[in-house]
Each structure stands twice: as C-alpha cells, then as structure tokens.
C-alpha cells in the first residue's frame, strides 16, 4: 500500500518511512505525568505512614543516661585508658 502511494521501489524503503512517522511517546508529557503520579502516590503513602506512627511521649528518655551517669562513665573510661597506657609504658 505505502510503496504504491509513495512510489517506492522496495518494501524496506517504505518501512523506514513508516518508522519515521511513528510518534515517540517520550516526546509528549505522558511519561512525565505518569512518573509524577507515581511519585505523588509514594510520598502520600510515606506521609500517611509517618502520621500513623504513635510514640508515647518521653519513651526515648528512659534509655538516655543522666548527666551524673555520663560524667561517672567518662571518668571510668579515662581511668581505664590511663591504666592501659601505664601498662603499655611499663611493658616497653
């Protein structure tokens, strides 16, 4: 059909003409809109999940150490470091 209308010699030539006429979908905004729709859906699901999370107030505080406990721990670590350093100095 196309060969006769365009007066082309071979069907291969007509195939290239038809291939050029096919509109590339990426020239349009459709892929961008579909991608945007997917991203919006994922962000909505994430935001709803974050809103659905419920934490009791102050629940994280029980794992935190007080200032006195922290100072005591740091003193013990310093003493231990000094003892190790003294042992290394005595060994050399």
Automatic annotation (TrEMBL):
GO terms for molecular function: enzyme regulator activity. Residues 64-83 have a biased composition (Basic and acidic residues). One of its GO terms (biological process) is regulation of protein catabolic process. InterPro entries: CSN3 (IPR050756), PSMD3_C (IPR013586). Residues 24-90 form the 26S proteasome non-ATPase regulatory subunit 3 C-terminal domain. Residues 64-92 are annotated as: Disordered. One of its GO terms (cellular component) is proteasome regulatory particle, lid subcomplex. This is 26S proteasome non-ATPase regulatory subunit 3 C-terminal domain-containing protein.
């Amino acid at each position: 059909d196309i060969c006769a209308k365009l007066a082309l010699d071979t069907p291969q030539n007509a195939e290239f003409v038809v291939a050029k006429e096919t509109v590339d979908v990426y020239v349009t905004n459709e892929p961008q809109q579909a991608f945007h729709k997917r991203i919006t859906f994922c962000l909505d699901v994430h935001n709803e999940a974050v809103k659905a999370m419920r934490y009791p107030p102050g629940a994280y505080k029980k794992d935190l150490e007080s200032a006195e406990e922290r100072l005591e721990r740091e003193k013990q670590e310093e003493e231990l470091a000094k003892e190790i350093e003294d042992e290394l100095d005595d060994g050399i």
